[in-house]
Amino acid sequence: MQQRLARGEAAALGELYDRFASLVHSLAHRVLGDEDAADRVTREVFGYIWENPDAYDPKQGSLRSWVATLTQRQAVHRLRQNEAVLARDDGAAPAEVERKIQDASTAARADYIVTSMPAPLRDALELAYIHRRDYCQTAADLGVTADEARRRLRLGLQLLSTAHHQKLPPGGPGEGNGGPW
Predict the structure, then answer these.
(1) Quick check: 108 and 31 in contact, CB under 8 A?
(2) Are residues 26 and 69 in the same domain?
(3) Is residue 171 helix, strand or coil?
(4) Which of 32-41, 75-84, 94-103 is modeled with the greatest confidence?
(5) Domain identity same for 129 and 68
(6) At what angle do helices 35-51 and 63-90 cross, to 10 degrees?
(7) Residue 69: which of 149, 179, 144 has the closest Cα?
(8) 163 to each of 113, 137, 166, how far by Cα in Å?
Protein backbone atom coordinates (compact mmCIF):
# COMPACT_ATOMS: atom_id res chain seq x y z
CA MET A 1 0.00 0.00 0.00
CA GLN A 2 2.75 2.44 0.97
CA GLN A 3 4.66 1.77 -2.25
CA ARG A 4 1.53 2.25 -4.31
CA LEU A 5 0.84 5.55 -2.56
CA ALA A 6 4.43 6.65 -3.15
CA ARG A 7 3.93 5.95 -6.87
CA GLY A 8 0.88 8.20 -6.80
CA GLU A 9 -1.75 5.49 -7.32
CA ALA A 10 -5.07 7.09 -6.50
CA ALA A 11 -6.63 3.62 -6.24
CA ALA A 12 -4.34 2.89 -3.28
CA LEU A 13 -5.64 5.96 -1.46
CA GLY A 14 -9.19 4.84 -2.25
CA GLU A 15 -8.51 1.40 -0.77
CA LEU A 16 -6.93 2.97 2.31
CA TYR A 17 -9.90 5.29 2.65
CA ASP A 18 -12.35 2.39 2.36
CA ARG A 19 -10.43 0.52 5.07
CA PHE A 20 -9.95 3.32 7.58
CA ALA A 21 -12.40 6.18 6.91
CA SER A 22 -14.91 5.05 9.50
CA LEU A 23 -12.14 4.66 12.11
CA VAL A 24 -10.73 8.11 11.31
CA HIS A 25 -14.11 9.79 11.35
CA SER A 26 -15.29 8.13 14.56
CA LEU A 27 -12.06 8.96 16.43
CA ALA A 28 -12.15 12.56 15.22
CA HIS A 29 -15.82 12.86 16.15
CA ARG A 30 -15.13 11.41 19.60
CA VAL A 31 -12.48 14.07 20.25
CA LEU A 32 -14.24 17.02 18.63
CA GLY A 33 -17.90 16.19 19.20
CA ASP A 34 -18.83 17.78 15.88
CA GLU A 35 -19.73 16.07 12.60
CA ASP A 36 -18.40 18.82 10.33
CA ALA A 37 -15.13 19.06 12.25
CA ALA A 38 -14.74 15.27 12.08
CA ASP A 39 -15.30 15.43 8.31
CA ARG A 40 -12.57 18.08 8.01
CA VAL A 41 -10.13 16.03 10.09
CA THR A 42 -10.89 12.96 7.99
CA ARG A 43 -10.05 14.88 4.80
CA GLU A 44 -6.91 16.31 6.41
CA VAL A 45 -5.65 12.91 7.59
CA PHE A 46 -6.10 11.30 4.18
CA GLY A 47 -4.61 14.37 2.52
CA TYR A 48 -1.56 14.06 4.76
CA ILE A 49 -1.24 10.35 3.93
CA TRP A 50 -1.48 11.10 0.20
CA GLU A 51 1.15 13.84 0.40
CA ASN A 52 3.46 11.95 2.80
CA PRO A 53 3.28 8.22 1.98
CA ASP A 54 6.78 7.66 3.35
CA ALA A 55 5.83 9.00 6.79
CA TYR A 56 4.55 5.55 7.79
CA ASP A 57 7.23 3.25 9.21
CA PRO A 58 6.02 -0.36 9.46
CA LYS A 59 8.68 -1.03 12.09
CA GLN A 60 6.83 1.34 14.45
CA GLY A 61 3.50 -0.51 14.33
CA SER A 62 0.53 -1.38 12.19
CA LEU A 63 -0.89 0.88 9.50
CA ARG A 64 -4.15 1.02 11.47
CA SER A 65 -2.33 2.29 14.57
CA TRP A 66 -0.44 4.88 12.55
CA VAL A 67 -3.64 6.18 10.93
CA ALA A 68 -5.33 6.31 14.35
CA THR A 69 -2.36 8.23 15.78
CA LEU A 70 -2.47 10.72 12.90
CA THR A 71 -6.18 11.16 13.49
CA GLN A 72 -5.86 11.68 17.21
CA ARG A 73 -3.08 14.22 16.79
CA GLN A 74 -4.98 16.18 14.18
CA ALA A 75 -8.23 16.07 16.14
CA VAL A 76 -6.48 17.21 19.34
CA HIS A 77 -4.74 19.97 17.37
CA ARG A 78 -8.13 21.15 16.08
CA LEU A 79 -9.66 20.89 19.55
CA ARG A 80 -6.83 22.99 21.03
CA GLN A 81 -7.38 25.61 18.35
CA ASN A 82 -11.13 25.67 18.97
CA GLU A 83 -10.74 25.74 22.75
CA ALA A 84 -8.15 28.53 22.57
CA VAL A 85 -10.62 30.68 20.67
CA LEU A 86 -13.40 29.84 23.15
CA ALA A 87 -11.08 30.45 26.12
CA ARG A 88 -10.21 33.89 24.78
CA ASP A 89 -13.86 34.69 24.23
CA ASP A 90 -15.17 33.16 27.48
CA GLY A 91 -12.14 33.66 29.71
CA ALA A 92 -11.75 29.92 30.45
CA ALA A 93 -8.65 28.88 32.36
CA PRO A 94 -5.90 27.07 30.40
CA ALA A 95 -6.05 24.15 32.86
CA GLU A 96 -9.74 23.68 32.10
CA VAL A 97 -9.04 23.64 28.36
CA GLU A 98 -6.26 21.05 28.79
CA ARG A 99 -8.52 18.90 30.98
CA LYS A 100 -11.16 18.89 28.23
CA ILE A 101 -8.53 17.95 25.67
CA GLN A 102 -7.16 15.17 27.89
CA ASP A 103 -10.66 13.79 28.51
CA ALA A 104 -11.45 13.78 24.79
CA SER A 105 -8.11 12.12 23.97
CA THR A 106 -8.65 9.43 26.59
CA ALA A 107 -12.14 8.72 25.27
CA ALA A 108 -10.82 8.48 21.71
CA ARG A 109 -8.06 6.09 22.77
CA ALA A 110 -10.61 3.96 24.63
CA ASP A 111 -12.81 3.80 21.52
CA TYR A 112 -9.81 2.79 19.43
CA ILE A 113 -8.77 0.12 21.93
CA VAL A 114 -12.26 -1.38 21.98
CA THR A 115 -12.56 -1.46 18.18
CA SER A 116 -9.04 -2.93 17.86
CA MET A 117 -9.26 -5.64 20.50
CA PRO A 118 -9.97 -9.23 19.48
CA ALA A 119 -13.66 -9.94 18.93
CA PRO A 120 -13.97 -12.42 21.85
CA LEU A 121 -12.81 -9.76 24.32
CA ARG A 122 -14.92 -7.02 22.75
CA ASP A 123 -18.01 -9.28 22.72
CA ALA A 124 -17.58 -10.12 26.40
CA LEU A 125 -17.21 -6.44 27.34
CA GLU A 126 -20.25 -5.46 25.29
CA LEU A 127 -22.39 -8.11 26.93
CA ALA A 128 -21.23 -7.22 30.42
CA TYR A 129 -21.21 -3.43 30.20
CA ILE A 130 -23.67 -2.52 27.47
CA HIS A 131 -26.20 -5.31 27.97
CA ARG A 132 -25.55 -5.47 31.74
CA ARG A 133 -24.92 -9.20 31.89
CA ASP A 134 -22.99 -10.68 34.81
CA TYR A 135 -20.10 -13.00 34.02
CA CYS A 136 -22.31 -16.13 34.24
CA GLN A 137 -24.84 -14.68 31.78
CA THR A 138 -21.99 -13.46 29.57
CA ALA A 139 -20.51 -16.97 29.57
CA ALA A 140 -23.88 -18.49 28.63
CA ASP A 141 -24.43 -15.94 25.82
CA LEU A 142 -20.94 -16.57 24.45
CA GLY A 143 -21.12 -20.34 24.88
CA VAL A 144 -17.98 -20.45 27.04
CA THR A 145 -17.22 -21.41 30.64
CA ALA A 146 -17.63 -18.89 33.44
CA ASP A 147 -13.85 -18.93 33.93
CA GLU A 148 -13.31 -18.12 30.25
CA ALA A 149 -15.84 -15.26 30.44
CA ARG A 150 -14.03 -13.85 33.50
CA ARG A 151 -10.69 -14.16 31.69
CA ARG A 152 -12.02 -12.31 28.63
CA LEU A 153 -13.54 -9.57 30.76
CA ARG A 154 -10.34 -9.18 32.78
CA LEU A 155 -8.16 -8.98 29.65
CA GLY A 156 -10.54 -6.53 27.96
CA LEU A 157 -10.58 -4.30 31.01
CA GLN A 158 -6.79 -4.45 31.27
CA LEU A 159 -6.53 -3.27 27.68
CA LEU A 160 -9.03 -0.49 28.32
CA SER A 161 -7.16 0.66 31.42
CA THR A 162 -4.23 1.63 29.21
CA ALA A 163 -6.32 4.33 27.51
CA HIS A 164 -5.90 6.70 30.44
CA HIS A 165 -2.13 6.33 30.70
CA GLN A 166 -1.14 5.92 27.06
CA LYS A 167 0.89 8.65 25.40
CA LEU A 168 1.25 9.17 21.67
CA PRO A 169 4.51 7.93 20.16
CA PRO A 170 6.92 10.67 19.03
CA GLY A 171 7.72 11.54 15.45
CA GLY A 172 4.31 11.96 13.85
CA PRO A 173 2.40 15.08 12.90
CA GLY A 174 2.73 17.84 15.42
CA GLU A 175 6.11 16.59 16.56
CA GLY A 176 8.27 18.94 14.51
CA ASN A 177 8.82 16.61 11.58
CA GLY A 178 7.56 19.01 8.97
CA GLY A 179 4.02 17.58 8.99
CA PRO A 180 1.02 19.87 8.77
CA TRP A 181 0.08 19.45 12.43
Answers:
(1) yes
(2) yes
(3) coil
(4) 32-41
(5) no
(6) 130
(7) 179
(8) 7, 27, 5
Give yes or no: residues 49 and 136 share one domain. no
CA distances from 156 to 3, 64, 69, 113 (A): 35, 19, 21, 9
The verdict on residue 22 lying in a domain is yes
Structural domains in the chain (count): 2
pTM for this predicted structure: 0.64
Domain that includes residue 100, residue range: 2-116
- Find, among 12, 77, 3, the residue nearest to 44 by Cα: 77
Contact 146, 139 (CB under 8 A): yes
Confidence class for position 174, pLDDT limits 50, 70, 90: very low
For 105-156, write each residue's pLDDT tens digit: 787 788 788 878 888 998 999 999 889 999 899 999 999 999 999 999 999 9
Please give the span between the terminal C-alpha atoms of the chain, in angstroms, as a whole number. 23
Residue type, 131: H
Residues 112 and 149 in one domain: no
The verdict on residue 181 lying in a domain is no
| Same domain for 126 and 38 | no
- One domain for residues 91 and 7: yes
* 105 shares a domain with 19: yes
pLDDT at 178 over 50: no
Higher pLDDT, residue 53 or 179: 53
